[in-house]
UniProtKB/TrEMBL annotation:
This is Myo-inositol 2-dehydrogenase/D-chiro-inositol 1-dehydrogenase. PANTHER family: BINDING ROSSMANN FOLD OXIDOREDUCTASE, PUTATIVE (AFU_ORTHOLOGUE AFUA_2G10240)-RELATED (PTHR42840:SF3), NAD(P)-BINDING ROSSMANN-FOLD SUPERFAMILY PROTEIN-RELATED (PTHR42840). It is an enzyme of class 1 (oxidoreductase). Belongs to the Gfo/Idh/MocA family. GO terms for molecular function: inositol 2-dehydrogenase (NAD+) activity. Its EC number is 1.1.1.18, 1.1.1.369. It comes from Brachybacterium fresconis. Residues 2-122 form the Gfo/Idh/MocA-like oxidoreductase N-terminal domain. Keywords: NAD, Oxidoreductase. The keyword Zinc-finger does not apply.
Length: 339
């Protein structure tokens, strides 16, 4: 049994406490940590977690903590990863692994030198159709890859407060999943240039503050492949996560817009339901990513889907190039970001 402290019990942390407590084989949550103590205590009560704590240091002192799961806001990721690594605790962190490329590199390096199992929360790799598509693509089923396209449209209406969302969020927290899976499909190919077009189309009243809620990013790779990733904070019709890999001998599609195979046919036509949010639609993928983390701690061979520190850095490089491309309204050479 791997004993886990979950750090951060907000929207996704609360989901992760539930998933780890109820659905992940071999995992047990022994501590929940949040400076919002009432939130931590409520989670502890609900899931019979012995310790509800206010900061990570209190959890790292506990003898029975083997691993941490970090689900806190982005600026805290690097210091929390460094703290966990310094105590030799295996670490799963939500994306991105740092606030910029420099921080991401430091986070990956801290995990590497501590020799811990380190995994990044790129759960989309573990969603059934993405996982299957990756197996097919790596087996050569679509031939030489020409195009990868990836879509992340969050379910509307958008209810966020633009002034509390940093302009880089659409790239660093939303499209970072797409950047990761695009790189994963393209294997050893290296991204060369990035161009991002982004705007506040969902909340145009926030445009002057620099808020961004919609983006399309084009990435050219050194093997000739052209990738596009697009995001919106508000799809009026529901949760829309899809992708495709198109190659010289075929195409594979991932993701399903309807959330049920049931179709209603009436005089108005055909109807399918498309609602849901990540914690519902991708619950199985979150469980699978945690099972991969637990199996790695137990010493099992990685299955090739497990995103590690280098993957966290690679996705962050594309996010930073996209941020720069949007800010400077030009094509950015990936080399510029790597310097
Ligand atoms: N992989 C995914 O699909 C997915 C989905 C949603 C969010 N996320 C990521 O998860 C992270 C958290 O997002 P969220 O929507 O749950 O945020 P949130 O604001 O709902 O929750 C964050 C929680 O962390 C707590 N916190 C802040 N600083 C802390 C610290 N130092 N130690 C412990 N707790 C601390 C806050 O009090 C809050 O309860 C972000 O990085 C986000 O990008 C990933």
């Amino acid at each position: 049994m791997v004993n886990i402290a979950v750090i951060g019990t907000g929207r996704i942390g609360a989901h992760h406490v539930r998933a780890l407590s109820q659905d992940v084989r071999g995992a047990q949550v022994v501590a929940v940590v949040d400076p919002a103590r009432d939130r931590a205590e409520a989670m502890a009560d609900e899931f019979h977690v012995p310790h509800a704590l206010g900061e990570i240091d209190d959890a790292l002192q506990l003898d029975d903590v083997d691993a941490v799961v970090i689900a806190t806001p982005v600026p805290t990721h690097l210091p929390l990863i460094e703290a966990a690594a310094a105590h030799g605790k295996h670490t799963f962190t939500e994306k991105p692994i740092g606030g910029d490329v420099e921080e991401a590199r430091r986070a990956a390096a801290a995990a590497e030198s501590a020799g811990i199992v380190f995994q990044v929360g790129f759960n989309r790799r573990f969603a059934e159709s993405w996982s299957r598509a990756h197996d097919l693509v790596t087996a050569g089923a679509v031939g030489t890859i020409h195009r990868v396209h990836s879509v992340t449209r969050d379910p509307g209406p958008f209810t966020g407060e633009p002034s509390r969302i940093s302009p880089g969020t659409v790239f660093q927290e939303t499209l970072i999943h797409d950047f990761d899976t695009i790189g994963w499909f393209l294997g050893d190919a290296r991204p060369m240039t990035v161009y991002a077009a982004a705007d506040a189309l969902v909340a145009p009243e926030a445009k002057d503050s620099g808020f961004l809620d919609s983006a399309v990013v084009t990435i050219r790779y050194d093997n000739g492949a052209i990738a596009t990733a697009e995001a919106s904070f508000s799809a009026s019709y529901g949760y829309d996560l899809r992708g495709e890999v198109f190659g010289s001998s075929g195409m594979v599609q991932m993701g399903e817009l309807p959330n049920s195979a049931a179709r209603l046919f009436t005089t108005d036509g055909m109807h399918a339901t498309t609602d849901g949010i990540d914690t519902v639609r991708f619950h199985d993928a979150y469980v699978a990513e945690f099972e991969s983390f637990i199996r790695a701690i137990e010493g099992d061979h990685p299955n090739g889907h497990r995103p590690v520190g280098a993957d966290g850095v690679a996705a962050q490089v594309l996010a930073e190039a996209a941020i720069r491309s949007h800010a400077q309204q030009r094509v950015v050479e990936v080399e510029e970001v790597l310097r």
